[in-house]
Specification:
single chain; about 170 residues; alpha+beta; 2 domains; three-stranded mixed beta sheet; 6 helices; 8 strands; globular; binds zinc ion
Length: about 170
């Protein structure tokens, strides 16, 4: 695609990086500019993450499917189905970068088993031990009336409550 009469594609796709140069037209040149791509780029820019192709592609997948909880394996399967060539290790790394940047929350339901959550507002979860499903509990629906003092030299950054449930009779 030509922008101002000059094909910029080779300039801006060297390596795996799409440089953030603050000019919307440059992205139109590099990739199909859909509203979702545009929002994905905005989100990455807002948290100062370089918009690599893989980050943009994964952010797009997350945005296209609304608020939800998912595992790295699930997102990797979606990426494969969408023709995004990305390894599971890269998906893990990217999800942790998104989490560290505040784009996602990680919900650790048990050691070695975690879900990622696109809902980054303060809220809690029901976790069904039988189905493995997570369900949101709005933050205002649950009050924690007594918290212990945090260990010396630390402060509480967030309180996540997971209420474990199972079908009646299990
Ligand atoms: Zn949630």
């Amino acid at each position: 695609m030509r922008v101002r009469g000059v094909c910029l594609q080779l300039l801006f796709t060297v390596g795996n990086i799409i440089p953030w140069i603050g000019h919307r037209d440059a992205y139109i040149c590099c990739m199909k500019m859909t509203p979702v791509t545009s929002i994905a780029l905005e989100r990455l820019r807002a948290v100062s993450l370089r918009p690599t192709r893989q980050r943009v592609a994964l952010a797009r997948l997350l945005l296209e499917n609304g608020e939800r909880h998912f595992t790295a394996e699930q997102l990797h399967s979606e990426a494969m189905a969408a023709g995004v060539p990305v390894s599971l290790a890269t998906v893990y790394n990217t999800l942790h970068q998104f989490t560290d940047s505040g784009l996602l929350h990680e919900v650790i339901v048990e050691p070695g088993r975690s879900y990622f959550d696109t809902n980054t507002t303060d809220h809690h979860h029901f976790f069904c031990e039988t189905t493995g499903q997570l369900q949101d509990i709005p933050g205002e629906d649950l009050a924690v009336s007594k918290l212990p003092s945090p260990p010396s030299g630390t402060e509480i950054s967030r309180v996540d409550v997971i209420i474990r449930i199972r079908p009646n009779g299990d």
